[in-house]
Specification:
Length: about 140
């Protein structure tokens, strides 16, 4: 069993974004896996909840305690620490994982950087970027 985070920008919130996210999720999903989400009402988090409820997949939600920037970032860290894999609906997925990780703003990028840092500290391998690119799927 693995935990698959589904995250994403609120700016990508249309039906085609949902279907891209759902399709990518099911490429990595195996029966018994869980979904992890930050419980935002738009974008990737909303897609995560719809997929979970539509397909009866267990979901672990991390809503922020308060609606403050500090709490949103604290929530992002919790999501990043729970995931084995992340499907991320980002603004420009064609840039690639390593370029998206370089962006300085955005909750999705913050979650992905936290996830990448955890991978780096776990594997302590000079080629940890390979591990990251095998575990983050951009849509």
């Amino acid at each position: 069993m693995k935990k698959i985070g589904i995250i994403g920008t609120r700016k990508r919130n249309i039906i085609t974004d949902f279907h891209c996210t759902k399709d990518k999720f099911f490429e990595v999903y195996n029966e018994g896996d869980w979904i992890v989400s930050g419980h935002c009402p738009k974008g990737g988090d909303a897609f995560a909840e719809k997929i979970a409820y539509d397909y009866g997949i267990p979901i672990l939600l991390f809503p922020p305690k308060k609606k403050t920037r500090k709490e949103f970032y604290a929530r992002n860290l919790l999501v990043a620490n729970e995931c084995d894999i992340i499907v991320a609906c980002v603004i420009n997925p064609h840039e690639g994982v390593l370029e998206v990780l370089k962006r300085t703003s955005g909750g999705s990028e913050h979650t992905l950087r936290n996830f990448a840092e955890r991978m780096h500290s776990t594997y302590r391998d000079p080629h940890y970027e390979d591990y990251i690119q095998e575990r983050i799927y951009l849509v």
